[in-house]
Structures are given as structure tokens and as C-alpha cells.
Write a structure and sequence with these properties.
single chain; mainly beta; six-stranded mixed β-sheet; five-stranded mixed β-sheet; 1 helix; about 35% strand; disordered C terminus; CheW-lke_dom; Chemosensory pili system protein ChpC; CheW-like_dom_sf
């Protein structure tokens, strides 16, 4: 096994089943959200789907709420997490853009799932205590976003505070003219 693909490398495929049992690793996903690398626990990711153009909400919404998309007979909100920082514009989707469908944690009844925009195909990672650390004072940090800035394999990243993202969604969705579950999926 090469050094860059070994199980201790942050970009290594996340083990499953017996390989993960009894170890101190957490299967995760590295999501490229424009200039921010998000690090998500694998347990919160329901699915990664191809990019679809989001449907507009009937009322004005913040720039970080890109719209809604249909998934498994549900209409879900789509968030650009990197835009939760003030003054950050949503990037244009490219050919490799994806939507990471995330399980709702705090408001599961009203928001069972939502989407996070990804600029590229997310990568499975094995999260171990040795390959994720706090940034030093002189190292670059992820933008001012809700979550914990970390260094992942030497690059700045963010473990997003998904409950804070959900709180922001729940504060905006009723005023947007529909809730995530309104309407029939097309």
C-alpha cells in the first residue's frame, strides 16, 4: 500500500464492517465547499447525488439557501455552507458538483434531511485522532463558519456545526413560503 493511500492517510477510503470495529476511527466524508473543506461524519450522510438545479423559493431567502431539490419524494432545502460566513457568494456549480444529502439531527421531525452543495465529488476518509488536529495560531483556518476549524492532512478544514446550520434553516424556511416537506416532488 502506498503512503498516500494507507489507512492512516486522511484521504484513505473509510473502512466498514469488521475493519472499523474496535478501532478509534470514524468513517467520514471530505466535502469540497468552494474554499472550505468540510469534514462530515459518515453517519450523517444519507446519499451523494448528482447536481440538480435547485428550485427557487417563492420569497426572498439568504444567499446561503440555494433553493430546494426533490429527493425520494421529498422536497429538501439546499445549503451552501460556505456562504453562512458573511460576504461569501455562492459559487457557480460545475460539472463535478454534487449534493450531499444530510440527515437532520436537531429538528429531525421538521427537517429530516437537507442538502449541502459540494463543488466536487466528496471523498470517503478515515478520521483518526492523529490525522485531524486543531490549527496552530500561524496556520490558515477555515472561514468564519459555524463549526470547529481543524487541520486535515495539513490542509485547513471545518467540522461544521450541523445543528447550527439546521437552526438557521428552521429560522428561514417558514418565511421562504414553504417548508422542506411542502408540495409533491416532481
Amino acid at each position: 500500500m502506498s503512503e498516500s493511500s494507507g489507512p492512516d492517510h486522511p484521504g484513505a477510503a473509510a473502512p466498514t464492517g469488521r475493519e472499523a470495529a474496535g478501532s478509534d476511527l470514524i468513517p467520514g466524508m471530505r466535502v469540497d465547499a468552494d474554499q472550505t473543506e468540510l469534514l462530515l461524519p459518515g453517519a450523517v450522510v444519507a446519499e451523494v447525488i448528482a447536481w440538480v438545479t435547485p428550485l427557487a423559493y417563492p420569497q426572498e431567502v439568504p444567499e446561503w439557501l440555494l433553493g430546494a431539490f426533490d429527493w425520494r419524494a421529498m422536497r429538501l432545502p439546499l445549503v451552501a455552507v460556505q456562504c453562512l460566513a458573511e460576504g461569501v457568494a455562492a459559487p457557480e456549480p460545475g460539472p463535478a458538483s454534487r449534493i450531499v444529502v444530510v440527515k437532520g439531527l436537531k429538528h429531525h421531525r421538521d427537517l429530516p434531511f437537507y442538502g449541502i452543495a459540494a463543488e466536487d465529488i466528496p471523498q470517503l476518509v478515515a478520521i483518526r485522532p492523529g490525522n485531524v488536529r486543531d490549527p496552530e495560531d500561524d496556520e490558515p483556518r477555515a472561514q468564519d463558519l459555524p463549526g470547529r476549524p481543524v487541520m486535515v492532512g495539513g490542509a485547513p478544514g471545518l467540522i461544521p456545526d450541523l445543528t447550527a446550520v439546521e437552526d438557521r434553516l428552521m429560522a428561514v424556511l417558514p418565511a421562504a413560503g414553504e417548508t422542506p416537506m411542502d408540495g409533491e416532488a416532481d
